[in-house]
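Dear colleague,

As promised, here are the two records you asked about, laid out in our usual form so they can be pasted straight into your sheet.

NAME FIELD: protein one
SEQUENCE, THEN STRUCTURE:
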Amino acid sequence: MTPVIPNELKRRWWKLLPAIFGMTLLSYVVVPFAVLFERNGFLPGWLRWFQTYDHDLYGGGDWQRDHPKLYKTRIGMILWLWRNPVGTFSYTYAGLWPEGDVARGGDPLTENRPIGHSGHCLTVCDNAFMSNTVRQYGDSKRCNRFVWGWKLYYEQQGGVVRKKTDYKVKPAQWIFVWWPLSGYSVSNPTGVDEQ
């Protein structure tokens, strides 16, 4: 049975949109100055809402691998935070702790990385949902990716859906992203995934 997003969850998500949008616009102005206060890869507490929740200012592993010349530079920090605006705000103010049973519909393999797979997947629990759509452009390494809801990453193994992220460590992040030219990992003939 295909899950349905309850109307109260949609309303809850839409109510948060103006705050996230306003903070995101503010981040494009604040971040270039905020990184001047960086110490050991972190912003001070009063600027923490502008930093990613689960990474320092030097970026995640994929970012560091894809942008080695920007590692630990001020411009690299700015670009990382612009790529991931108001990360801590979207976890702490707008995020939540997922509760209840999980229902999944659509294609659970839908993702752009590590193995690209075009499709749509909807994940719903008692208090949150995540809609993820990926469409590869022809045979290219680019795709159109649209995700909204809260980051609910679950894996499906057989008929069992299990958590991919430990939500006891961090909440599910409020998310609204549209990447019309997102990267897409294409499997090569040897079966080894390319990045």
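NAME FIELD: protein two
SEQUENCE, THEN STRUCTURE:
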Amino acid sequence: MIFPRSPALSPSARHPNSVHNNRMIAATAFAAVWLLVAVPVAAQPKCTFPGKTNICRSPNGKWILHWQQAKPGSEHVLIAERVKASSLHLMSFKRSIDVLWSPQSTYIAINDHSGSSDTNLFVVELFSASIFIVDNDFQRMLNQRRYYENGHRYFNARRWQTDTKLVFEVKAYDAEPGIEARGTFVFDVKSRTVSRKD
């Protein structure tokens, strides 16, 4: 006697749970990729010196920033120390600074609040201790005279877009109310270029 052949079951019919698991894995992977794209890279808050703590650790845990308090006749000092290695004297400052690490701990952006009328912005490459003055490249790359016609000018690091691209804001105003220049820009450390942020 010949029995009719049963139709072959698909893999999903044989193992319905495996299909569910595969869908869950795919959904989780999609969510992870979406978070990487949607969430800003540099969510780490800035460290302030002098501040509540004397230490600011890098995201990768290999560097520590700390400051030495000013002594009579001298300024505060910012020091970078590589864990279990030597330390670097990065810069001196008069009043206070804010520091923002790049995601891979290659650079730090430093806002130097040197006076009540201006704030300077520097980017430091840790391994070489090279210091880039963002204001210099800002003037070289862009013709933005309106930012230099006012008595108060502030460069402010906002966040790291990538490990080599810093988003910063420039704001300038004077004693006369209603006159203010403000813009957001991107500083590319590798190419030393500044561009407007759309």
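A couple of things worth noting about protein two: The chain has one domain: 47-196. The domain at 47-196 is CATH 2.130.10.120 (Methylamine Dehydrogenase; Chain H).

Best,
R.
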